[in-house]
Amino acid sequence: MIDLNNPVIRGYLIRLVGEDGLEMIKNMPEGEVTDEQIAEATGILLNIVRRTLFILNENKLAVCRRERDSSSGWLTYLWTLDMSDIEPQLVKEKKRIVKNLKTRLAFEEDNVFYSCPEGCTRMNFNEATECEFLCPFCGEDMMFEDNQEFVGKIKKRLISLEK
């Protein structure tokens, strides 16, 4: 079983399935179980359990097996958690975050920004000129924004992720 107290794993799972989904994972019964059994054992609403199971299945963290009742013809879905694939999923997520940060860094470095002193909006130079450097929401004069501190934070985050 994985360490659900690990902040990286915990953060990934919360982003993936939310707090209720994480609670379901923590309290899910061992072995193959139905979604109804999971809902009963965890106290989580059945529709949240089903949503969580499908998300986990799409991300290769849960396995589903169908079983047909020979007399009624009804299908029963049996679920098992399989967190053995979480490491590759975390690597994939890390690559996605690095790619997004690099895109944002390039955008921040390639533009000059202006913001409303009231905090209504932030615009690049071209957008600000279209508004004649007046906030379209409150009418205040837009102020030049030095984004170097923000750029530094993005670079620092990228360095820590690429280690």
Description:
With 163 residues, this protein is α+β, with helices and mostly antiparallel strands. The protein is built from six helices and five strands; from the N terminus they run H-H-H-E-E-H-E-E-H-E-H. The protein has helices spanning 7-27, 35-42, 46-58, 86-110, 125-130, 148-162; strands at residues 62-68, 75-81, 113-115, 122-124, 143-145. The chain has a three-stranded antiparallel sheet. Helix 1 (7-27) packs across helix 3 and helix 2 (35-42) crosses helix 3.
Helix content: 40-55%
Parts with pLDDT < 50 across at least 5 consecutive residues: none
Strand order of the largest sheet: 4-3-5
The helix-strand sequence is HHHEEHEEHEH
Give the tally of β-strands.
Answer: 5
